[in-house]
UniProtKB/TrEMBL annotation:
Domain (G-protein coupled receptors family 1 profile): residue spans on this chain: 56-308
Keywords for this protein: Membrane, Receptor, Transmembrane, Transmembrane helix
GO cellular component, one term: membrane
Membrane-crossing segments per the record: 44-65, 77-98, 155-178, 190-214, 245-266, 286-309
UniProt-recorded name of the protein: C5a anaphylatoxin chemotactic receptor 1-like
Main location: membrane
Amino acid sequence: MALNHTDTYRDIFCSYYNSNTTCQEPAEDDILLIERICSANKTVAYVLFSIALVFGLPGSILALITVSRLPLKPSTLYIGLLAISDFLSLIGASLTYYKLLTSDPIEEWEEFSKWLGRIFQAFSHWLLALICLERFVTVTYPLHRVKVYTLQNTLYTCIAASALCCIPFLMFCLHYLNVVTYSKFRFISIVIYLTIYIIVPTLLIIVFTALTALQLRRSQQRRRTILTSENSERASKMEADLTRMMFLTAIFFVILTLPMAIIHILDQAEYYLMHIELCPVKEAVSYFLFYSSASLSFSNHAINFYLYLLGARGFRKQFLLVFSKKVKFQASATASSCTEEK
């Protein structure tokens, strides 16, 4: 397969050859290898993202319905908003992600919708960080938690997090519309985007999850205090369930998003700081890792409902209670209508 005039390979979208570099022009075997890597990338990314959509969209709706039946508290408010944000993240990504995988040119509205979707993706990350912080305060300072975490303060933290997540979108608009012409503005905006989108929330999630686990392990007496501080057995069980839900979502968040974070940071560092231009085969491998890790990270927005069901007995019981009532109501309505017809 020969090179065309733009120094890219025919029908290959995940690699290119720049004749101005020290890289040798790839042989026929190398081009065939690149084709296989591109094909594998497309398949893996399609499958991972499609699975996230199929399970994540209904899962977010079911999580929101179930949480809405629980007592309104800071923790349940966070979880409800997380379900909404996860749903919107997947919807926003679905508008352009499949097109990005084939490197087809995207229209202007699609470029803006991609960055709007990233607002909700970042907001989900920050909501999980806030949940971890709330659980840490609950575990470490159970007597002060009620004063610190009022519903009003919780709303304020959510508003502040959402405003913070809008900063990368605003910087993208300034760059895309050529409002700012500073030569290094794109690099600065990418650094800010990665910092807000993944670096800081991931660090906060890891730190507060580790500190919470350490506090629970250090003192069994403190743990008993936490689980009985609500003056009712139901409330104490709910607190224990919320803590387990936090641990599960935090652990899987790190597993699913850490590869993407590392690869994205290395990719930008190679291009902007070290000025490394990869040769064609390595470029294809880098492309594969980049999009496969990104597709995997979308599972983070799809898996929470199922983690709640598996790890939180109270949530599972509430879910079954809510939907068993709906089934009974529909059955009784059907029976009454049949009786009236007779």
